[in-house]
Automatic annotation (TrEMBL):
Domain GP-PDE span(s) in chain numbering: 3-231
A GO biological process held by the record: lipid metabolic process
Gene Ontology MF: a single term: phosphoric diester hydrolase activity
Protein name: GP-PDE domain-containing protein
Organism encoding this protein: Paenibacillus xylanivorans
Pfam families for the chain: GDPD
SUPFAM superfamilies according to UniProt: PLC-like phosphodiesterases (SSF51695)
Cross-referenced InterPro entries: GP_PDE_dom, PLC-like_Pdiesterase_TIM-brl
Coiled coil, from the record: none
């Protein structure tokens, strides 16, 4: 059974987030989409990790940007995992699952992040398997300048007419909103505009059930098996 939802950082409730074991479990469970986070190493290599610092997920300390990719991959994580490069992830998941690549850009913190990520997507011929998201407007505009075909979308807590107007102007086909601020008005507006709406990050079964009333909205979750349980219960009623 294919699960129409977004596995947030893979399956972080059972495996270290943003690692290959976490990603492959999401594929095994049948999720259609996977969200992952990308930073840039000191030597300009896109690496997959959520935080700008290493302390929470590895035995290292300090900023991601202060380490080379080789140094980052030598750090220890739980369950014998390591920080993967984006190249490693794309190679392993090509043809297996749709990828939501979130650029962890802040202003010009990583000057070449957008270019390096897009180069890899082109290298692996995965334009149709990837959509690129960010909280950073400028990062998405840089991606759009590289290609009119790549799917892009803003991540935001709430929504507004200005955000929808920007999305239309940029040809964005995706919008990610914190689930608490997803309203029926914006669900309908996004459907009207042809923008795919995602609600993040939903880990409570009661909220998952609520969003079953809005099948056009993708649910982003850490609780993959709980989401499957909710789907199965809903389909049995």
């Amino acid at each position: 059974m294919m699960i129409q939802a977004v596995a947030h950082r893979g399956y972080p409730k059972k495996y270290p987030e943003n690692t290959m074991s976490s990603f492959l479990k999401a594929v095994e469970l049948g999720f259609t989409h996977l969200e992952l986070d990308v930073h840039l190493s000191k030597d300009g290599i896109p690496v997959v990790i959520h935080d700008h610092t290493l302390d929470r997920m590895t035995n290292g300390t300090g900023r991601v940007v202060d380490y080379t990719a080789s140094e980052l991959q030598s750090l220890k994580m739980k369950q014998d995992e390591h920080i993967p490069t984006l190249e490693e992830v794309l190679r392993a998941l090509k043809g297996k699952i749709q990828l939501n690549i979130e650029l962890k850009q802040m202003g010009n913190y990583y000057p070449q992040l957008e270019e390096r990520v897009f180069d890899l997507i082109e290298q692996f011929d995965m334009l149709n398997q990837v959509f690129i998201t960010s909280f950073d407007f400028d990062a998405l505009e840089k991606i759009r300048q590289r290609s009119g075909d790549v799917r892009i979308g803003l991540i935001t807590f709430g929504c507004s007419k200005a955000i929808l107007d920007w999305s239309i102007e940029m040809g964005a086909t995706f919008l990610s909103i914190h689930h608490a601020f997803v309203t029926e008005h914006y669900i309908n507006k996004c459907k009207e505009l042809g923008i795919q709406l995602m609600a993040w990050t939903i880990n409570e079964a009661s909220i998952m059930k609520k969003f079953q009333e809005y099948p056009s909205v993708w649910v982003c979750t850490d609780e993959l098996e709980s989401f499957i349980d909710v789907l199965e219960l809903s389909s049995s009623l």
